[in-house]
Amino acid sequence: MPSTANDWVARLSLGFEARHGRTALVHRQRQGPLSVQRSLYPEGPVCHTYLLHPPGGIAGGDQLSVDCTLADNAHALVTTPGAGKFYRANRPSSLTQTITVNNGASLEWLPLEAIYFPGCNARQTTHISLAAGARFIGWETHCAGRPVMNEHFDYGAIDARLRLRISGQLVLSDRLSLTPQSYHFPAANHRNFPVQSTLIATPANENDLAMARQCGGDGLTIGATLIGDVLIVRALAPHTEPAMRAMTELWQALRPNILGRAPCPPRIWNT
What we know:
nickel insertion; mainly beta; about 10% helix; seven-stranded mixed β-sheet; eleven-stranded mixed β-sheet; nickel cation binding; 2 helices; about 270 residues
């Protein structure tokens, strides 16, 4: 659908490189309101970067894309200062994220949750491409409606897709699809859990899998599997707080083994 003068068509391209003992954001190109804050280094060589979308949410007709590339041996942590929001709209809106992690590089992709308001027509697509020697921990959390306000997602459409490739080979193709037809089928609607989280970590092992399977509580339903050395963890929750807490605790537990670094939560999470 063609955009109008009131639509946001925004693009952000980021490139990270290892330079002089630490990772630098050496490429930053933007169109529209998508941007990043200045790079932070709370743990020395790792570059912490916060993605910003100043209007605060995605409305009908908006088309946003983010491209993030890590060169060999770079290490970046990317997060957001607040939840993403897809607002009620008659027209479709989209967010496309393309992530490339080259040999020896490490990326932590840790955005806060995406909230889908009732009546939205939203599509989010995430493409992750890892080189054979890359390391990655990332998550996505999708919240249908605003359950803490007793607001249910009882109309609208969500199409959220995630694809992971390693050395060009497709390892995971995931899709969350909610349409008016799915509201009448609990299995298609995640048994009426409004919040769904997915965490991916690699290279992982059986110990990491066992650790993930110990997560739970707070009304969570969690499952974990290991495909080769790729750990995939899924959680269903009644609202976002327990889901995000579980993902954060698991990231902190996995980080030393997978990335060789102690946990260092982004400062923005404390505000």
